[in-house]
Amino acid sequence: MKILVINCGSSSLKYQLMDMETESVLAKGVIERIGLKISGGEENVILKVNGEKIAYDKELLTHTDAFNEVKYLLSESEYKVVDSFDEIDAIGHRIVQGGPYYKHSVLVDEKVAKDIEDLSPLAPLHNPAHIQGYKACLDVVGPDVPQVFVFDTAFHSTMPPKAYMFAVPYEYYEKYKVRRYGAHGTSHKYVSLRVAEKMGKDPKDLKVITCHLGNGSSVTAVKYGEVVDTSMGLTPLDGFMMGTRSGGIDPSVVTFVMDKENLTPKEMDTILNKKSGVAAISGISSDDRDICAAQAKGDERAILAHEMQAYQIAKFIGAYTAAMNGVDAIVFTGGIGENGFWLRSKICSYLGYLGVKIDEELNEKTVKGAEAELTNSSDNVRVFILATDEELMIARDTEEIAKAVKK
């Protein structure tokens, strides 16, 4: 079975075609700047196949135009990997917010699509784009190809009310579904299963803390295969400081600054989501590579940004160790989780009370995409670097549902 995995942003479309018999990637790529003017030489269409990268510029006005370009690349161009798009058995979509309604991946119909559209206020940067992607696929392949929604929030649906409720008037939960939902669930699920495999254990026998660290970051407590708490909240803004996001702060900071600066809610939202975090503290960038370079030169604000980030993450690990009454493994994944040896080292330096002592030489030389254990297999708490594979998780769920449909 061949599964096409789609992840749509407001002006982008990431795609990956997988052969599920071998769980191998046949081709992948991204189309950017959808609906925007393209300057000459601005390569916004990218395909990677057989170790080769193909990139060119093309103005594509809608997500439907972009998906037609994907169809052309995969089944008609000189780089095609299938003879016909009809060989694609199903399409799986990454969906950020499934609200309280979707605790598992589902086959998409009109009601599901409408529900996800209605949940857009909880993920205004993501859900509308996901629906655009779904409709674009529908325009191109028609209703006979099964489409599946795989939710970032689904893995977190096992959280108990004591973890997901906020201490605000209960009517806000009843009227607006205000609660903790979490994010990056597909990644947290993958690495929590992968670490159990690496340890030779059943996930139901382990207490694991997974740290998905990138421009957006979250930490999750997975007890015996189920999430009991996670750092992101109603939206991906909660938790700890990220590339441009503030993470959790004293709520009074919001009202205080709004009053002093005469800001609207939308303006304040932009500050917290796009003008805060590592970028704000460092004054340099939200890109961790830039922060590392500045830190190496002794830049005090870059050092502070990293110190704050490591400290906050370590506090979440401590809190989740308490929440689970212990921990067997800690996993680092995501762009920074896999690349950021300094951050990993600093975080682990706070975990001596757990008996954590990592191999600093191995930590420093492990590169993105590699898997490594930084502790000894005999240690009570083991620390791993694992490459996440959200696309594979989406493809697996999509394959399972598509097979059930075809029975």
Folded structure, characterized:
The protein has helices at residues 63-75, 110-118, 127-141, 161-164, 170-176, 185-199, 251-261, 265-274, 277-282, 288-296, 300-324, 334-339, 341-349, 360-365, 390-406, and strands at 2-9, 12-19, 24-31, 45-49, 52-56, 90-95, 106-107, 147-151, 207-212, 218-223, 226-230, 329-333, 372-373, 382-385. The protein is an alpha/beta fold and 407 residues long. Strands 5-4-3-2-1-6-8-7 form an 8-stranded mixed β-sheet, with helices on both faces. A 6-stranded mixed β-sheet has the order 11-10-9-12-14-13, sandwiched between helices. Strand 10 and strand 11 form a beta hairpin.
Question: Briefly, what is this?
Answer:
The chain is an alpha/beta fold and 407 residues long. The chain contains 15 helices and 14 strands.
